[in-house]
Amino acid sequence: MVAKRTRYRRAAAAVAAGALPCLAFPAPALWWFAYVALVPWMLLLRSAPTGRRAALEGWLGGAAFIVAVHHWLLPSLHVFLLPVAALVGLLWIPWALLVREFLGGTPEPGRAAAALLLVPAGWLLSELARSWQGLGGPWGLLGASQWQVPPALRLASVGGVWLVSLLVVAVNCALVLLISVPGARVPAVAGVTGCVVLTGAVWLWVPRPEVSGTLRVAVVQPGLVADGPDSAEQRFDAGERLTRTLAGQRVDLVVWGESSVGADLAARPDLARRLAALSSGVGAPLLVNVDARRPAGPVAGPVAGPVAAAATPSGGGIYKSSVLVGPGGPTGDRYDKMRLVPFGEYIPARSLLGWATSVGRAAGEDRRRGAEPVLMNLPGRPGVRIGPLVCFESAFPDMSRRLTGDGAALLIAQSATSSFQHSWAPAQHASLAALRAAEDGRPMVHATLTGISVVHGPSGERIGPALPTSARAAQVYEVPLSRGSTFYVRFGDWPGGACLALLAAYCAVEGVRSLGLRKPAPEPTTPPARTARG
């Protein structure tokens, strides 16, 4: 009975410890807490009596972390969030086993030093795996909690958010050694010192983005609109009114949020004409976002005027599309969202999981995916190209990296989090713009319907005021442009490759050692002595 109670207590402790790191993310945004948040969980894992118990507690803690960071999804997914978290939580089992293996008992200095490399690598393995869109995407990566720390943003320009995650876990690991293994204090102190030296070296010697000009960008945030059959029209009207106030302010680009236009512009020429008139009145193109059903193939019949460029050959279905509109109407530049939100915009394996629509606000119909990224030439600014992303896509480092490598001077994420207006979601989403800007050395505009809208410069620094969820405004930002390329854009996700190689080498060594232990004893080289009988 006592043993059973102990197991239950340890399980509850694993759940609580796994949820703790959520406090480092927005909205609490206790960025410093990330460097100690894993310590209770790791202390629990190192004391696990068996590997099986460590695996269980790693799984429970991982599932609790997913629920804690994504708790604002409960109104949409309801109880379905729990099986999703249980599935994704399995990814922490290898990390938990590494913690017990290298930090359990009284590790020698050499093993403690190895822990400072392999334990962070095991954590990153879980982050890399769950960053696959089918498992929810890279939301809540530990390194993302450092979005407002300039030295961490500089590290992101070298190795992306992945390098920041590694550093945070390494510090947690060193603290566990300092607390629990007195004989390992030398490697623990050396590990913390190495993290500080690496951060300092990057801060001092990695070049900052070179500013090459400015761009006046206006973000239009229409605010909350009551749900109803005419909500799309009301949202369009609010955006239109706010955009008119920008006349005479000499802006280069006006950005509306995700789903700011609720009808296909080819099917609604009146909306296309109103947008063209707005562009003419403001003296700048508009980047709007169309969330609507599009017919298969080009629009039939003769098309003239501002609707002509809106007729785009495609498969029929509902798309979310960034569309550039000038004084003559849609310019022909359109980007269709490629990575959709699981359950929110499509249901994975709908034939099996379609019942999710009956317990939450899951997608009743799967939206269609775009085929490829798109760069748009900014009218009136020769050589300036913008790279649009839609909502959830700003969480994926590889998407903004590809746009930057292809020549984007400005990254734009059009988003809408109105379904989660009074939760942590708007702040979490807005924080990702700082990381993408720092990784790629390009400014990023995060424009939303209902807040938080924000702009970050090419080093990840905040540009101008953020528009909170209570704001209904059109705000103009002086956005610095930059040239050159960051280490991360040139070399990509190299920290992930390095960690996989390190873990593979460890597995190979352990495999060879295991075979050596099982090797049968050698046969004797001399014949056995004969003994006299009788």
How do the strands of the widest beta sheet line up side by side?
5-4-3-2-1-11
Portion of residues within helices? 40-55%
pLDDT < 50 runs, ≥5 residues? 299-313
Span from first to last CA?
Answer: 63 Å
Order of helices and strands: HHHHHHHHHEHEHEEEHEEHEHEEEHH
Mean pLDDT reading: 89
Strand residue content: 5-15%
Structural class: alpha/beta
**Overall strand count:** 11
**What shape does the CA trace take?**
globular
- How many helices? 16
| CA radius of gyration | 27 Å
Largest sheet: 6 strands, mixed
What does the model show?
By secondary structure, the chain is α/β, with parallel strands linked by helices. It has helices spanning 2-19, 39-46, 51-69, 74-77, 81-89, 93-103, 109-130, 150-180, 185-205, 231-244, 269-282, 350-353, 397-405, 425-440, 487-491, 494-518; strands at 210-221, 253-255, 286-294, 317-326, 329-336, 376-377, 385-390, 410-415, 444-448, 454-456, 473-483. The chain has a six-stranded mixed sheet. A five-stranded mixed sheet has the order 6-7-8-9-10, covered by helices on one side. Helix 7 packs across helix 8 (150-180) and helix 7 crosses helix 9 (185-205). It is globular. It starts with a helix and ends in a 16-residue tail after the last helix.
